[in-house]
Amino acid sequence: MINKKVNSVTEALQGIENNMTIMLGGFGLCGIPENSIAELVKKETTGLTCISNNAGVDDFGLGLLLQKRQIKKMISSYVGENAEFERQMLSGELDVELTPQGTLAEKCRAAQAGIPAFFTPAGYGTEVAEGKETREFNGKMHVMELAYKADFSIVKAWKGDEAGNLIFKGTARNFNACMAGAGKITIAEVEELLPVGSLDPNQIHIPGILVQRIFKGEKFEKRIEQRTVRKK
Length: 232
Known about the structure:
This protein has helices at residues 9-12, 34-43, 62-67, 83-91, 101-113, 176-179, and strands spanning 21-24, 48-51, 71-76, 95-98, 117-120, 134-137, 140-146, 150-161, 166-167, 183-194, 213-216. By secondary structure, the protein is α/β, with parallel strands linked by helices. β8 and β9 (166-167) form a beta hairpin. The model has no long low-confidence stretch (mean pLDDT 95). InterPro entries: 3-oxoacid_CoA-transf_A, CoA_trans_fam_I, CoA_transf_BS, NagB/RpiA_transferase-like. Belongs to the 3-oxoacid CoA-transferase subunit A family. Its EC number is 2.8.3.5.
């Protein structure tokens, strides 16, 4: 079996260059590839088009890339927690493509499955449908959406083995599962990296065939975006 393990985040991100399109898993701050984002900041890669549910918060996650003006375009479904994102969007510094959340997920999954396009009723009759083919199915109008094309997909998993098989934990599964295999090259950073054969095959969420590089992250802060507690 092919060994997909690389020894560091620096080695994992080799080949990522300016002006590339990158998918990044996570939902807000939940399940984001923290080590990879930090390395992109360190690499000072610029002109990036990032496909992600949102841009995190101002001082963490993709917000760090926004602070350094490394992102030229964001393709997202939600932007409500990042003041710098809002400022750059309203000032015209950042190109933003807002996409219904289910459509964004399906455009990733379609790319993962090798499906070039699909029809969805979401967005019909709105700005989302402008310039796109529409068609009626069973008496309801649908919009044709193209699968995403990304140079790299970067995902984060709880456990993985050296063959690239991945297991996610709880809600951190989110967009990571549909983005794995959706880019030309998929990089997985994991909390625990195990030898081949260590994972129960019945528990694997993403098979190693969809992953090209895997590494163990050195540090995960796992920040909580909105902490809500019960009153005493």
